[in-house]
Amino acid sequence: MQHETHQRLGEIRASVGMEYGKILQKILAISLLETKVESLVERSVQGIDLEMVIGGATCAFEVKTSEGNTIKLSRKDIEGLDRQVEAGNRAYIVVLTNGPLDDVIFARYHPGEIPAGKELSSFFFRAYQEPALQQRIKSTFPVVVDKYAQTAVEGRQGGLDKILAQYAEWGRA
Amino acid sequence: MIGAPFPVRPTCLEIENFRGFRGACSLDFGQDLTLLMGECKAGKSSILTAIEWCLLGTKIVSSTSTGIAERGDWILANTMATGETRVTLTLVVEGGKGKLTRTRGLDAKRNAPDQLELTLPGEQILTGNEVEEWLEWTGMPNWDTWKQAFAQHQESARERITDQADRSYLIASMLGLSDYRDLSAMLKKVKPKDLEECAQETLQHLAEDQQRARQTPQQEVNGIQASLQRLNVSATQAGDAELELRRKALIAEALPVGEAIGLPAEQLPHQDWSASEVHTWGVDWRSQVDAHLTPLRQELGDLEGRIRSLTASHEALNPKRVALADARQQLEGLRSKHGSPQDLRAQRETIAGELNTLREQRREQGELNNLLQEALGVIKAGGRTDQCPVCTQDAGGLEQRLQEQLASGGEDTIQNQLDQLASRDGALSSQLQQLEQAQATFQGTEDSLASLEKTLRGQLPPGTQEEAGVTELLAALLAQKVRLEKTINLADENLAGMTGKLEVFGLLLNLRAARERAEHRAGDLSAMPQFAALQDKIDEAAGFACDLIALENMARELEEEQAALQIQAVNQSINHYMSMISPGFEKVVSVHQKHTATKLIYQLVDSEGENLTGTLNQGALNSLSLATFFAGAQFRVSQGLPEFLVLDDPVQSLDQAHQEGLARAVKEFSKLAPVIIACLPSHFTKELERLKSPDDKLCRVHGSDPIQIEEI
Amino acid sequence: MRVLDELEAIIRKRGVRVEERLELLNRLRKSDPSQEQLNQRLAEFKTAIQGAARAIQKEIR
To answer: What is the DSSP string of B260-286?
Structure first.
């Protein structure tokens, strides 16, 4: 990740505290929407965070952020992801830890590979990352962070929701 | 090499010079049961140890390898022996019988290897490592398996079930899960977490390096700004505009200087030069200007000298002329008063002659006077003043006459004349001196004036009039001096200011460069191809680590699955043997699988899930240990693996009923695989005697020297 | 070893990093002691990571 992008994310985290995970989720959503997806829906109540359709295929994202360098998936997260796989969708865990050199990792979820309730470092998820998705947001993510950092700090989730609403492909369920 | 299980079992044992056995001894085992009874120190345990040593080697006497502390002090060789130690075990193997012989030299050091030989059917002979490989291939036990499923050691009867690791190992073996556990344990030892830590540490250090690389240009900018601040150039002022202003000013101030001092065009700055070019030029400026100023300064010095000289020459003339006139006047005055020097010299010459004459006269008179004095003296001395002392003639009034002559000699007159002449000469001398001096003064002044006039003429252009020429020349020289001074001052002022201005200019230039470096986000790794290469390496390492963890987890999951399938059978087996050994035992024993963070462990629990090993008495623990022992051995038999039991005094803490129960369990098991037991005479041995079948062999071991084994 | 055969079946069924994990399994089948081989591989990865990091440090220091 570029230094400036990491700096801006740090500023956002310092301002918004507990909301950081949700806010990052929305920033990611905007970054994905900028890459011309067919649809992107926020599905927080159904066990995963985002659902994206691209090229006719459905991708489910569980977004995990951390102040340190590990994240943990709860049993509920795992169950949600399992359901996605059973439904024939591609499930991903999107990991962003706090190291200055850490990047967003789109790690493909495979049932049985990831234990629930265990602290796992971003290193572990690198084994499952899909370069295509990483590449997708490589150029848009830093731009979006820079552009909407202030909105995130001042308007919080509501402010970013207004931005998201401008995209025809965006929806909430 | 894929091992096909075959129930290898021992049929005969030959011992020579081993522990209590001095000399040779042999024993054929019963097909089912072999019981070795005897009192303490009879040598019965040594027979079992001999089997162990033959199969497993010297590791059986290591306290760390065996986990049995007292074994560390064991000595294998018979202390009275005079030959090597040898044990041979005859085994039923695939295709017939084999003989496994282990030998150790008489004075072999503790760590020295044994000689190992195996003779197989078809006269095939294996030695050393080949034998070890064959034993492993056939499924013969290593120490851990021996301890869990082959041998009941009296030193550690209950550890089988009380030690968590031993218990889990045994039960896992009974469940057929040794391979799974071994694989999981091996994968765990590889420590994929090391890779994670390596990657994280590496990224951490790089992040710190990046931070430093970013801070350094900014620190540089701050440092330069501080230096400029000290030179009264504020941070806001210190920008491109100021740099441009100063660039132009440096050029504008230098050009007139360069032109004035006659610098060639190539040494002068150009208006279209960049700030860097101007700075480079500025660094050399002083030396170039100084090089041109030096001759100018020299010229100025010469000019000033010339002006001084001309002025001095011109100003010295008139006084000299006046002095000459005075000297002439004085000389002429003296001449007219005293005459010429020649006249005076002539007069003095005359006087000198007269003086000489008078001096001669005086001398003569003096001599005469001396004679007269002398005569007077004689006369006085002779006492006759009227007689000549020489001729003695009468000379009346001689003394008086002599005195009168002395008085009238005229010496005083001569002297007076001399004095008068001397005085006159003195006066003449003085006049002459004055004349000569006046002459010299006049001459000197005349010469001096001539010299001055010559000097002055030399400084003027030829043919010029003196006065006008001097004035004109002086004016020209002064004008030249002024111009030269002006040029030199201009250059000096420029140089004096240049040092400070160049310093500020240089700092502004450096500041611009430092700001550019800071702006270009020095140290941002994400753009470097090397960083992408590092990320690829970390991804690859993460994949490897993840695969190791996944395999370990899969092995553990498989172990769980298999355990779930086998547990019932194992529980049945344990409870079967427990009911035989301990008929009054009311609890039902179950194997319970427990997950820890890193592995599966096995416990023995009752029907309410309570851990049995924490609650049973010694006798019950011994019984349970024996029951699991038999159950484990039975499992190996069911797999077609080599199996035979070696029990050393198994009746510890067992009362009569339990001993009888154990005897029944032993008898039952011996139908599946051979059992060899060493024991003190007891209810247990009596029961075994009672239950004896033709395939059993009951022996009494006598602890005599040599040890005797008697079949009963 | 039976366990290795069963692991192979699970790896194929799960379909995650199949090629890499089967290669690892083959190493376990072939070599003895396997742990030493795996430790060596681990050490190679560490060396590669540290070498790549040094190349970057040379540039930015």
So the answer is: HHT--GGGSPPTT--HHHHHHHHHHHH
